[in-house]
Design a protein that fits this description.
The protein is mainly α. It contains three helices and two strands. Helix 2 packs across helix 3.
Length: about 80
């Protein structure tokens, strides 16, 4: 489940139990919401998933919109 939070809080909170393949789909979903377009999100999702996987671990994590934007910029 992906949830939006109020300003000043983490933009995304997620309880995660998926594997590596599911992480690609999660990155895609986050990018579609962030970018508002599926084509660009699809082309960047695998690279963003790898970058985020290095930072995110465990079953629960938070991700700020700025962190997602930085991962996208690094992937592109």
């Amino acid at each position: 489940m992906v949830a939006r939070r109020a300003a000043g809080m983490a933009a995304y909170e997620l309880r995660w139990q998926g594997g590596a393949e599911e992480f690609d789909e999660l990155a895609f979903a986050l990018l579609v919401e962030h970018l508002g377009e599926a084509r660009r999100a699809r082309s960047a999702s695998s690279a963003v998933a790898r970058l985020l996987a290095e930072r995110l671990s465990g079953e629960f994590w938070t991700l700020r919109e700025s962190e997602l934007a930085a991962a996208l910029a690094a992937a592109e």
